[in-house]
Amino acid sequence: MNDSPLSVVGRRVRSLRSARRGPARYSAFDLVRRGALGKDWPRSFTQPDLKSSYDAVIIGAGVHGLATAYYLAANHGMTNVAVLDKAYIGGGGSGRNTAIVRSNYLTPEGVRFYDRSVKLYENLAVDLNYNVMFSQRGHLTLAHNDSSLRTMRWRAEVNKLQGIDSEVIGPDHISKLVPYLDVSPEARYPVLGALYHPPGGTIRHDAVNWGYARAAEHMGVHIHQYTEVTAIHVEADRVTGVSTNRGDISAPVVVNCTAGWASTVCDLAGVRLPLITHPLQAAVTEPVKMFLHAVVVSGSLHVYVSQTDRGELVFGASVDPYPSYSMRGSLEFTEELAGHVLELMPSIAKLRVLRQWAGLCDMTPDYSPIMGVTPVDGFLLDVGWGTYGYKAGPVAGEAMAELVATGKTPEIISSFDLARFAEGRLVGEKGAAAVGH
């Protein structure tokens, strides 16, 4: 039986509507049936064949690479894109961070940039049709001396001028927000005040990775896991493609969205970066009843702590003081971290640490990222994120997608170009990023 023209059009319309809606949605009955039977679940990600040519190749399947691919497809209709990773989705820094999100930075450029990221995070679950578990519980940066308090007031004024909800509060207000925090004058490091940032909070990092990957793949992007880039081809100062352990790919645009290995990937294209790679360690305790309803950071003690929805306390500190590519935890880190945390909250002394881990951080001289073009035409950078790359995933992806699609650098990332180091236009964020969170 032949289809009528109307039925063909109707089928196409339904197909287009389905594409716009994104990945498949399941009813409560479908979830119960599939969960009870334990079968018939469709694969979350496919394993596409590696094509010999793409319009763009993105190196790194973390939040930055996946977000760039997603916004290329969603905002610019560019779907002939390959995301390559030598391991698995979110297997690098995007799966090894403590998932803190905020925008209370020190420079106007940084504040505007990270605020856009927070705004994108706020709507991400709806945009991706995936629960990313964003909890805007508030972010406190403690001040233990007059110098730190002055810096907090400086940051608060910069934030307010950019329209960011941020203010300096005193010990009484801090005690109401975090009752278990020791704000007494007898504390070894008395708390004089804090920069309070209500929009800050935590997000489920693996959910963000999977949500971006699923949505991008649904629109036609190819995500190739366990595909290592072994060479970047450059002819007459222009990128022409890459070689991988699965074959060669030709592409007019290659985007480096790696963390930890940013400089080694750039070496393949003959581009040098002012980066030093340091490990960043973190740890998590056994789960307990929810009691910590804000993210607490102390720059003086080099520690930060938050509580997950499961009740675990997540601790972190500043990067290790030596450059390394090691991702092993150390006993020295745990001992020092535990001591500083107990100086803030003595009542949690009996909590047991369950595990610890480390990730790699590419640190720039001014603690700001490197984004945009390079001397090699078509080879683009989204690297150098130090300890704060996850916060910037959505806005970095949005901006890099615009750069790839239009060939023009968006204003929001223009200050973060590679040329600023040679021209002396540093964007100093150490005052807001030295601890990392």
Word description of this protein:
The chain has 437 residues and is α/β, with parallel strands linked by helices. It folds into 2 domains: 56-100 and 205-275 and 366-433, 3-Layer(bba) Sandwich (FAD/NAD(P)-binding domain); 134-199 and 276-362, D-Amino Acid Oxidase, subunit A, domain 2 (D-Amino Acid Oxidase, Chain A, domain 2, 2-Layer Sandwich). The protein contains 13 helices and 19 strands. An 8-stranded mixed sheet has the order 5-6-4-14-15-16-13-17. A 6-stranded mixed sheet has the order 8-2-1-12-19-18, with helices on both faces. A 3-stranded antiparallel sheet has the order 9-10-11, with no helix packed on it. The longest helix has 17 residues, at 5-21. The protein is globular.
Topology:
Layout: H1 5-21, H2 28-37, E1 56-59, H3 63-76, E2 81-84, E3 100-101, H4 108-122, H5 124-128, E4 139-143, H6 146-161, E5 167-169, H7 171-177, E6 193-197, E7 201-202, H8 205-218, E8 222-224, E9 229-235, E10 238-244, E11 247-250, E12 254-256, H9 262-268, E13 276-285, E14 295-298, E15 303-307, E16 313-317, H10 331-344, E17 353-363, E18 370-372, E19 379-383, H11 393-406, H12 420-423, H13 430-433
Quickly list its features.
eight-stranded mixed sheet, alpha/beta, FAD/NAD(P)-binding domain, 437 residues, 21% strand, D-Amino Acid Oxidase, Chain A, domain 2
Summarize, please.
This protein is α/β, with parallel strands linked by helices and 437 residues long. It has 2 domains: 56-100 and 205-275 and 366-433, FAD/NAD(P)-binding domain (3-Layer(bba) Sandwich); 134-199 and 276-362, 2-Layer Sandwich (D-Amino Acid Oxidase, Chain A, domain 2), CATH 3.30.9.10.
